[in-house]
Amino acid sequence: METQRNTCQKNSCHSRDIRDSRYMRAESLANFGFFEVDLLSGWSYWSPGMYRITGFDNETPPPSMENLVDWVLPADQRNFRLFFEEVSQEGNIGFLEFRHQERADSVTSFEVHLEPETDDEGSVIRLFGILQEMSPDKV
Asked: Model's pTM, two decimal places?
């Protein structure tokens, strides 16, 4: 019986590893990453794909909202900030297109999708999001 239990535990771990590996491959193929922000505690999580497409250091915690806003093309920063504020306050699912400029000769388009989670009173307590790199555009 003990051998069967150990085998099941190993298979469970193996299945999780396969699932995680497939998810990371999907993130890479589709140029996307996902994130989660707990608005009550300030805790946040970024998937490996988020770090990869944004270029932030994956050895550090996810950046603050201000650091993320600074990463957005200056012309799009106001709309980016307002989008997150509106979803956080109103609790509606939404998406926004914005741009990031890594080099002087190229701008990359991104799309962010946000889905809020609310508590029993309807207040937004958590945000789940997907960020997808759409295309690098030559300037």
From this structure: 0.78
